[in-house]
Write a structure and sequence with these properties.
Elements lengths: L1 H20 L8 H8 L3 H9 L3 H4 L5 E6 L1 H5 L5 H5 L5 H9 L2 E3 L4 H4 L4 E3 L5 E7 L2 E4 L2 E10 L2 E6 L8
Parallel strand pairs: 1-7
Antiparallel strand pairs: 1-2, 3-4, 4-5, 5-6, 6-7
Helix pairs in contact: 3-7
Length: about 160
């Protein structure tokens, strides 16, 4: 129990530092905060191409595990370009919804979970390794970026649902 509590405190503290680095603002939507951050350009482009910008700008609430541009760059060459083609919209939407959990799940709640059901329908696994919180194989690098319609947790890898 003590280990879980100290991990939760570490996660919350990491989130506090992260929020200072990119605070977002609680009066802007998840999409507006992602655009403003300038480190989610690929994610924003994908959300727009998938037709999800309006949904993620709606009331929500939503929890978004947001991969950075660097995370998208780590995918095999041509992956992003292929997904952004109109004929691959269904697969793109599936991948994007796999990064969204309905409801506002703050870091203090995330660390108490073993998994979470995504808007795509599948579940992501949640675990802790040392002070790190992992969503599948992606590390949460910044937590609790509050938005008017939910929260963003920044991750270092793109989550890919099982096919």
């Amino acid at each position: 129990m003590r280990k879980i509590m100290s991990m939760a405190v570490a996660f919350v503290l990491a989130g506090t530092v992260a929020v200072q680095a990119f605070a977002g603002t609680a009066d802007k939507t998840i999409v507006e905060n992602a655009v403003e951050a300038k480190k989610f350009n690929t994610l924003v482009a994908a959300v727009k191409a998938g037709g999800l910008a309006e949904l993620l700008s709606s009331e929500g609430p939503f929890t978004v595990f947001a991969p950075t541009d660097k995370a998208f760059e780590a995918l095999p060459d041509g992956t992003v370009e292929t997904l952004l083609k109109p004929e691959n919209k269904e697969k793109l939407v599936s991948i994007l919804k796999y990064h969204v959990v309905p409801g506002k799940v703050m870091s203090s709640q995330v660390v108490k979970l073993e998994n979470a059901k995504t808007a795509q329908g599948s579940t992501v696994s949640i675990s802790t390794k040392g002070d790190a919180v992992m969503i599948n194989n992606a590390k949460v690098t910044k937590a609790d970026i509050e938005s008017s319609n939910g929260v963003i947790h920044v991750i270092n890898k793109v989550l890919l649902p099982k096919e």
